[in-house]
Write a structure and sequence with these properties.
This protein is mainly alpha-helical. The protein is built from 4 helices and no strands.
């Protein structure tokens, strides 16, 4: 009984905003024909900035992906310190643990810089 009341209340809350939504209004064909040349000129002016933002943003996304994989240096270093120490991997393990500990900080900084790179700022 309680579940059916919960589901009915949930359905009512989900459907309620649909009754108060504004009606959709379309552009008139004449308005679209008048604004098309202006839109083309705006695009021609903005295109270099859009391309630069996409280039810098894509580069930053690749860096963020690299940071995610750098986090995997931490367990690799732990294995090298414990199991690989007799075989001479202790110093490599210490180095990899250091890289793995720094990687989350680099990921956070790159994530915070990402929105700015979409506007064409090379950080």
């Amino acid at each position: 009984m309680k579940n059916s009341i919960k589901y009915a209340l949930l359905a009512a809350l989900l459907l309620l905003p649909g009754f108060f939504a504004p009606e959709a209004q379309a552009f008139e064909p004449v308005t679209m024909a008048l604004l098309a040349p202006v839109a083309i000129e705006v695009y021609k002016v903005a295109e270099p900035r859009i391309v630069k933002g996409a280039l810098y943003g894509g580069r930053k996304l690749v860096q963020m992906g690299g940071n995610i994989f750098e986090i995997l240096y931490l367990p690799l270093g732990a294995v090298q310190i414990t199991l690989g120490a007799p075989f001479g991997f202790f110093s490599d393990g210490i180095r990899n643990i250091g890289k793995g500990l720094v990687a989350p900080g680099k990921l956070v900084l790159n994530t915070l810089a990402f929105p700015f790179t979409l506007w064409g700022v090379d950080i």
